Amino acid sequence: MNALTVLISCPDQVGLVTHITRVLAAHQLNIIAMREFVDEANKAFFTRIACTGNLENAEKLKAKLLENLPNAAEVNLITEQEKQIAVLVTKEYHCLAEILIKNQFKTLGANVKCVIGNYESLRGFTEKLGIPYFYVDHNNKDKSVFEAEIKEIINQFGVDYLVLAKFMRILSADFVKDYAGKIINIHHSFLPAFIGANPYRQAFERGVKIIGATAHFVTDNLDEGPIITQHTNHVDHNFGVKEMVRAGKEIEKKVLLEALELIFEDRVFVSGNKTVVFK
Predict the structure, then answer these.
(1) C-alpha 72: how far from its chain's center?
(2) pLDDT at 208
(3) Which of 5, 76, 159, 239 is the most exposed, having the fewest neighbouring CB atoms within 10 Å of its CB?
(4) How many CA atoms lie within 13 A of 161 on its CB side?
(5) In terms of pLDDT, which residue wins out, 275 or 193?
(6) Catalytic-role residue among 39, 223, 236, 266
């Protein structure tokens, strides 16, 4: 028996679950788990179905599903296969370290094909774990040239996703368009939010009581792409800047790894500027 994940998004209508399950049964696929959600405001239907069976012709199954679904339906059939990723970094190591350690012990749910950094700082650590590291300098260089050099590296590996593990450069709209829906970012988010340099110092000086982090898909609007997951931690007057930074890094790691797990297990649908996440 082979595993198959079926992802469907389409306009909502009566009888969709019946139509879908009938087609799967006709192809001798056994449903192990099925989750569905209806966005009533937008009249949209989403489902994730885990199946087992011997699928002989994926294209035939996809065509039959589309035949039984409304116009504008999207169907993805995913066999058990680890995703391939590239990680982009600057100098901070905490998110990269979590990714590479899990990759080393085969618990990431994906294969790290390469790490690309705009500083040399993380080369030694990366290469000790057997991952190729590519340095792309951004200094005194037009952004289009800088990004073209990054693309050239990425395209050597045929990756499914780009993970920005504290990559501190703003990507152009053209770059984002080339990898639309494939770039995942992590950033601090505070209540209230602090932007610019030294956000943890700003938070400390303001006396915040909650710190947090957000993992999201990257779009043209900086840090405003569809949110995958978020977490917060409570802090108090006992936290100095150093403690704020330490707590912030811990929650950034947690949020990023949780988001990656959801994505690598094909549990995330993007719907406009929101996500539907089947945990």
Answers:
(1) 24
(2) 82
(3) 76
(4) 25
(5) 275
(6) 223
